[in-house]
Please model this.
Amino acid sequence: MISKKFLMLLAILFGISFSVQAQIVVDENNDEVDEEDELVVTDQNGDEEVIDFPEAMTYDLDSLLNEYMAKTYLTKEDCNLKNENIDYPEEVFIERLSRMPTVMEMAHNNVVQNFIDRYAKRLRGTISYCLGAGNFYMPIFEEALEAYQIPLELKYLPVIESALNPRAVSRVGATGLWQFMLATGKQYNLKINSLVDERRDPIKASYAAANLLSDLYKVFGDWNLVIAAYNCGPGNVSKAIQRSGGSKDYWQIYPYLPRETRGYVPAFIAANYMMTYYSLHNICPMSSRLPAQTDTVMVSKKMHFEQIAQVLNLDIEMIRALNPMYRRDIIPANSDELYALRLPQSEVNHFIELQDSIVNFRANELLTNRISVEVNDYTPTYYHKSKRGYKKGRKGRIGRHSKAYRSGKSKAHRRSKARGGKKKKSSRRRRRR
Model:
């Protein structure tokens, strides 16, 4: 199949024109297909620049639908709406954005409009998926944001960060729904090691993200700058402010931001628009059935998901979906450090009753790392021939008091015994002094 790159035209706001460049190929049925769609910004000086589209919105929809939660609880039901976008005048978009009950500024311009058009046309399926998956995750996001007094419209930030996929990993290693980098995750007390990655935990990562957003607002005092800093780091935003002459307006520092960040705020505004007005563009959300109620139990002994699944007769994929923070299906718990395990509420008491059986079930097979081992203290005897005689390993020539000599195992000793114990005279003449 021909791969498609979802790159979006972003035009700088005031008095800047743009041109579109696209490479078109013809498939076997002679239909035109976009193989590479590069929308290039051209300023008044004729300089062109390609600006990145959010990586999460380029994820293949089929791979998103292959996740356990999507396969199990999302369905593509027949929609009464026609699967085609409706074009509206610019004034309609301006009026709709102004009516949204948000603290953040949801300004309209041609940059935002291009994102809305992309979502409403080529990314209709992804928007439909996010609307369905949002039933799982939006309540978690809202609770975390509310705890830190963050505007609730920021619950749509993971839409452009990860397309609501808790296992998402970006090209640069950002992970989870909120796409934390490793260093930032550890800074906000997310545990990350070979077995556990709490960046993939929807609850813990959401609270860490709310904490981070709160800290960034204390620095910049503007939510557009906050989410720009969330994307590229506060240092890059501070540099852009300085290069712009001290302006703290996102749209004024826009040209001084990294390329991937210039599309970030417009993409976020467009995501808020689409998640609110999707039905006016004939987009049907995927039908979702919320999973059975779940509960958390704290585990104090190391165990493998396979042990839990087989003893409790549960689907291991379901356990993985409810506990995406465990990278190798192993809960590395011990008496000093407890770990959370999320299970269907109906199975929690069953787990507590059978915990000892679970821990012992196929433990030697599934948990192969040994606690202690005995070292083999046998010292093997081996020889190799050198110009100076037979040596034992690298320890030098065999002496008369060595085990090998006394036991008669050395070849030299056996030859000497065969000659009656007589020492062979050296054929070399001694050098006269």
In short: The two ends are 88 Å apart (CA to CA). Residues 1-44 have pLDDT under 50 and may be disordered.
